[in-house]
Amino acid sequence: MQFDESIIRNVVAQVLAEVGKAPPVTSGFKGRYGIFDCADEAVRAAREAFEKLSERTIEDRKRIIDHIRQISIDQKVELGTMEMNETKIGKLAHKIEKLELLGRKTPGVEFLRSEVFSGDHGLAVIEHAPFGVIGCITPVTHSLPTITGNAVNMIAGGNTLVVNPHPSGKKVAVEGVRRFNKAIYDDLGIDNLICVIAEPTLESADLIFHHRDVAMICVTGGPAVARAALNSGKKAVVAGPGNPPVVVDETADLDRAARSIIQGGGYDNNLLCIAEKEVFVVNSVFDELMRAMERAGAVRLNASEIDRLTSVAITEVGDPGKTKQVAAKEFIGQDAAVLARAAGKNISSDVELVFGETDEHNPFVPVEQMMPFIPFVRCHDVDEAIQKAKYYEHGFRHTAIIHSNNVRNMSKMGRIMDTTLFVKNGPSPAALGVGGEGYISFSIATPTGEGVTTPLTFTRERRCSLIDDLCILGHPAKG
């Protein structure tokens, strides 16, 4: 019997492809600077870039990252303005500042470390290796800043990435990625370390999630996309929702607490997932804290104004009988003056935050509203305040804040809340090193437990063992 060799070759190639062992196909993506309409092409280009990056040194990774940092810092005004004009949410000054913060404070190759175990039976070295191509979903709230932080973290770990940005932030994502890749290519000759889908869709996200050459998923977004990532069958790092509560007890420095609540809750019009969303205050200091808020520059809304604002800024979605309350899209990330007008009050455009007293059943308390109005709820004592904070944080274990000079109250709340970030006597951004200690990332993985992501988040452990040699202390084991 005669066999057609070409048929055999085709069958072998098909089998190899199906088991994930087909040789890489070089398709000439140089000069694209990471911009793709086709998700499959983007992943293939990122895979080629990963192979090239794998041949480079840690020092080369640092040079690559330095280009990303420098562009984020030097071009922050232009790129921040571009993001503000496209998304139309938040504050321009904070768009600009976020790019600089991510450029300066995102951890890089300095976070990589090896561990060594030495003893009678030789030496074991644990190193951190890359996964490969990482698929990323980024939010409209921080489109380019999230890409910046992810790129620094992931490339420091030796990976490349493919980004499916939020459609409302795609233009600035594309332009930022183009600039990053061009600078890297001009210096080191590697293109497409960061790839972005120019016209992102749910279909392109799904293809990235399930592509054979995507080794890992990183999602920064809402519950639906988080569930999709967790169901992808791949390792997923998921930055999920938050509804950060604040507790203020009777020992707090109330003026400091007020300034902190305004600084954190008003930052970028409350778009940060870590931002103060609702405040539970011990009754004995409630009225004085409200006065402190006004002294610090926030504007108080009365009960009827709050009712009017609630009726338009919180809406219901879902099928009949299965609806839930959510923030109305047209008010997310808008200025405090816009919210005040909706409530029937005219205030200065310089006001960062509006606030007012509500009970715990007002929708602004349970809903992650992402707008600069914060409800304040009276509580009998600190125990009630902490319990309400626990309840309305919804078990996200994301972020919680307390203002207190009582160490036991701080400790009690920390244990009960069990959140990834816990801030004491400061604004929420301090938890990310902005006015506090530590480092920054806008991918804060609470559902999957990695916390504030670093380069190590995107690596896998490899152990290399040498048996009965290179132990130069003591005497080697016998036998």
UniProtKB/TrEMBL annotation:
Pfam families: Aldedh. InterPro entries: Acetald_propionald_DH-rel, Ald_DH/histidinol_DH, Ald_DH_C, Ald_DH_N, Aldehyde_DH_dom. Gene3D superfamilies: Aldehyde Dehydrogenase, Chain A, domain 1, Aldehyde Dehydrogenase, Chain A, domain 2. Residues 39-427 form the Aldehyde dehydrogenase domain. GO terms for molecular function: acetaldehyde dehydrogenase (acetylating) activity. Keywords: NAD, Oxidoreductase. This is Aldehyde dehydrogenase EutE. It comes from Blastopirellula marina.
